[in-house]
Design goal:
13 helices, 6-stranded antiparallel sheet
């Protein structure tokens, strides 16, 4: 999966309307998987009573002879643990999302993937997620034979707000000391660009002259371990981004209609997401390869189009993994995204198969109406920035409507992206 650069996080916080709301992970009952590590189970009551918000724990090691217990802890947005200490110390390694760590009497430190925290024995501290981001870290227990957790009072809302007050501006304070010298100027620039974005919005509505600004090159020379070139490329983007939408097609590949759809999308320079059924792949391997080679994202739609919450966990896993294997044998890539048939998802199945379930914002009902005008009417009334549009590449009317949708929304300055690009910008 793509790692989101810290600069992209800043831009997303300021200029995006938010990630895809239809992703099941937005439901706090189904935690968002933000790292390659398992999410595990909700904290048992013996630990959850020391947390504000919801968190999940996944032990990663079993052999006690190694004396190195390692677990992955996932925090929902705003979740944090109480002030506490460890008699034997602890190591934290941030692996996903954005979070914070604070020692008693010291400023809070923002955490991004790759950051390491060395916690000395008996140091009082807390850690948790940013207000608007899921967060995962590995917790490595030091001196496990004698190490004990000493739980103290809760981190109050006021303490948490003070610790995370820089979150919207940069989300980075104290994470990379060598960048501290330029952050104040950078934050000022970002605020100016936000104003520019509002001026552009006003101009589009006829309120004033449209003005375009780009990020200056003051940050280009920053020596940061997170890829200087990607940082530069990200920060040099025009702050006014196009509205985005993701076209998705279920039930394929279809030997008659998928090629027509691919031809039309290629002519328009548009990429989409295809959720393939395993049983429809056989005999159409070349078509699957074409989907990949033309830059589209391939996802999983189970083997037999079964409703996953109506079958056993083992049967659901087989439906998904058999399809994944077929796709891998053709493309060399295991799908990470899954469209559950009928939009029904078995709770916690994403931990079992380690995939991201994706639902939709606009259901065109193309399979039902098979009518271009009806499909277009739904899209016109329901589409908005960040929308995932559900269609099927199994009907001529769907192909015709899909290409009309592209033409319509591109004229309205929409950009078409895959669901991965939408969810992980």
């Amino acid at each position: 999966m793509k790692r989101i650069l810290f600069a992209a996080l800043t831009a997303a916080a300021l200029f995006s309307d938010g990630i895809l709301q239809s992703l099941n992970a937005q439901n706090m009952e189904i935690p968002k998987k933000v790292s390659p590590f398992p999410v595990g189970d909700k904290l048992p009551e013996q630990f959850s009573k020391y947390f504000i918000g919801q968190a999940w724990l996944a032990p990663l090691t079993d052999d006690k002879r190694l004396n190195a217990p390692v677990s992955n802890v996932t925090f929902s947005p705003g979740c944090r643990n109480n002030w506490h200490s460890h008699t034997g110390g602890q190591l934290l390694i941030a692996v996903g999302g954005r979070g914070y760590y604070q020692e008693k009497g010291r400023p809070a430190r923002a955490l991004l993937p790759g950051d390491i925290v060395e916690i000395a024995p008996d140091v009082v501290h807390w850690h948790g997620a940013a207000p608007d981001s899921w967060f995962s870290h590995l917790a490595i227990e030091c001196n496990p034979q004698t190490n004990k957790n000493m739980w103290l009072e809760r981190v109050s809302d006021q303490q948490y707000a003070e610790a995370t007050k820089d979150n919207v501006a940069t989300g980075l304070k104290a994470t990379d000391p060598e960048l501290d010298g330029i952050f104040s100027n950078f934050t000022k620039e970002v605020q100016e660009y936000a104003c520019a974005g509002r001026e552009q919005e006003g101009a589009q509505k006829g309120y004033g002259k449209r003005e375009e600004k780009t990020v200056s090159d003051k940050v280009i020379g920053a020596r940061n371990r997170r890829s200087e070139k990607k940082l530069e490329d990200t920060l040099e983007k025009n702050v006014t981004e196009k509205k985005k939408a993701a076209l998705t097609f279920d039930d394929g590949p279809n030997s008659q209609y998928t090629p027509l759809l691919l031809k039309g999308l290629k002519e328009r320079g548009v990429h989409a997401t295809f959720f393939l059924m395993g049983k429809n792949i056989e005999g159409k391997e070349a078509l699957v390869k074409q989907i990949q080679e033309e830059g589209h994202l391939i996802g999983n739609h189970t083997y037999n189009h079964v409703q996953l919450d109506k079958i056993s966990k083992e049967a659901a896993k087989e439906e998904i993994e058999t399809t994944n294997q077929k796709i891998f044998e053709i493309t060399g890539v295991y799908p990470a995204w899954l469209r559950p048939p009928y939009g029904e998802w078995r709770k916690n199945l994403d931990f079992y198969v380690e995939m991201f379930p994706v639902l939709w914002d606009v259901d065109t009902l193309d399979w039902k109406s098979k009518n271009v005008d009806s499909i277009m009417k739904i899209v016109r009334s329901e589409v908005s920035d960040g929308a995932v549009i559900l269609m099927h590449d199994a009907y001529q009317s769907s192909v015709d409507a899909a290409l009309q949708i592209v033409d319509l929304l591109m004229a309205e300055e929409y950009e078409f992206v895959t669901v991965e690009e939408l969810i992980l910008p």
